[in-house]
Amino acid sequence: MNPIFDQLYNYINVTINCCCDISHSAFYQEKKTHSDYDIWYILAGEVTITLNNNKYTASKDDVIFFYPNVSYESAILEGYCEFIYIHFDFSIGKKLNALDNYNFSGIIRKELLTKVSETFKDIYFQYKNSDYQANYLIKASFSLLLATILDLPENSGAYRTFFPNNIKESTTDRFDLQSVLQYIEENLNKNIRIIDLANMINTSEKYFITLFKRNVGVPPLQYVNELRMNRAKKLLYIGSYSIKQIANILGYPDPYSFSKAFKKKYGIAPNKFKEQCQSLS
Q1: What pTM does this model have?
Q2: Number of domains making up the chain
């Protein structure tokens, strides 16, 4: 999975704006543009999508992923087509439409999503007319489906068809940012300074902070802290490292500074967290 999604999972917010099922008969056509993300799960039949003069076909159990503000035409050429559609927002911190920097839009074939898509379908039809935990369970199963899509490798071969890339940010900015993220990941034991990160892409500190926050959703030092805290939890769970060793691995000047940061983040001292993990193992 993209390291940004993995490390900033606490800041990711998925809001389902609409989740319904619908059926269209043969010769139905429509042209639409949506202001939010849209995923279709095909329940039966076949639908043809036309986007930028290119035609794509999705069949039963395939998933179609549309991005905001992209015009498309859909048509049912024969028989009928039934599908569940989910309109949703995806943000990281204060960054809205956080998927726009990456191209996940397109058709994902059933072979890549069989188990999670069937789970989502079953939960949707079981709870769509129920007041009992319906919204919570549908969102949970949809989040699993979405996470699986975001984790798919780009080289999925014949099982995945990408729509034309409509990424707004320049590929140069995104490439340089990936090198910065890799540097942070590999140097958590050091004093990571914004000036050093900015120099990696030959820009000023002020513009680097703006660029980083625009692409990632949080300021750079907040991202560094998230990585350190996530790594700290893993090391504490392993149980073979002392608090002093973890503080050194993660670039804190002393165990006290690390313990203070950990407790501020999670509300529990790292030695107590370690004890809880050991009692559960």
Answers
A1: 0.78
A2: 2
